[in-house]
């Protein structure tokens, strides 16, 4: 099962994701993917966006390209665990940059 936590910055997505993981992982196999910091590509994009003050559609396109890449990882995790918790997915990125 795939569960994505979306919403504006500072609304508690990460906290809720951690709490749910703590509860679920006692009984079921569970994985948390924290976007965009899950892997080196996501960390690089985040650093690049901050250092170069990338804004608007450029930032959105960088992150959407990242999510297109990470979908392979998400699909692999969904096929081998009971729950995959996504701390942010593409909808937060899209809405943040509209």
Structural shape: globular
* Biggest sheet statistics: 3 strands, parallel
Task: State mean pLDDT (0 to 100 scale).
Answer: 88
How many DSSP H or I helices?
4
As a percent range, the share of strand residues is 5-15%
Q: Write down the secondary-structure element order.
A: EHEHHEH
Beginning-to-end CA distance, first to last residue: 29 Å
With strands numbered from the N-terminus, the spatial order across the biggest sheet is 1-3-2
Rg, nearest Å: 14 Å
Low-confidence stretches: none
Give the tally of β-strands.
3
Structural class: alpha/beta
Helix coverage percent: 55-70%
Gist?
With 98 residues, the chain is of the alpha/beta class. Helices cover 57% and strands 14% of the residues.
Describe, in plain words, how this protein is organized in 3D.
There is one protein chain. The chain is an alpha/beta fold. It has helices at about 15-25, 40-50, 55-80, 90-95; strands at about 1-5, 30-35, 85. A 3-stranded parallel beta sheet has the order 1-3-2, with helices on both faces. It is globular, with a radius of gyration of 14 Å. It starts with a strand and ends with a helix.
Q: Any key phrases for this structure?
A:
98 residues; alpha/beta; three-stranded parallel sheet; 4 helices; 3 strands
Any chance you could write out the topology, listing elements then pairs?
Layout (H helix, E strand, L loop, with lengths): L1 E4 L7 H12 L5 E5 L5 H12 L4 H25 L2 E5 L2 H7 L2
Parallel strand pairs: 1-3, 2-3
């Amino acid at each position: 099962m795939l569960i994505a936590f979306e919403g504006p910055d500072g609304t508690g997505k990460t906290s809720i994701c951690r709490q749910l993981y703590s509860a679920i992982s006692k009984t079921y196999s569970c994985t948390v993917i924290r976007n965009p910091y899950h892997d080196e590509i996501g960390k690089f994009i985040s650093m690049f966006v901050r250092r170069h003050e990338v804004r608007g559609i450029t930032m959105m396109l960088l992150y959407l390209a990242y999510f297109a890449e990470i979908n392979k990882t998400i699909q692999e995790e969904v096929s081998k665990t009971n729950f995959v918790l996504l701390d942010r997915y593409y909808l937060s990125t899209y809405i943040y940059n509209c």
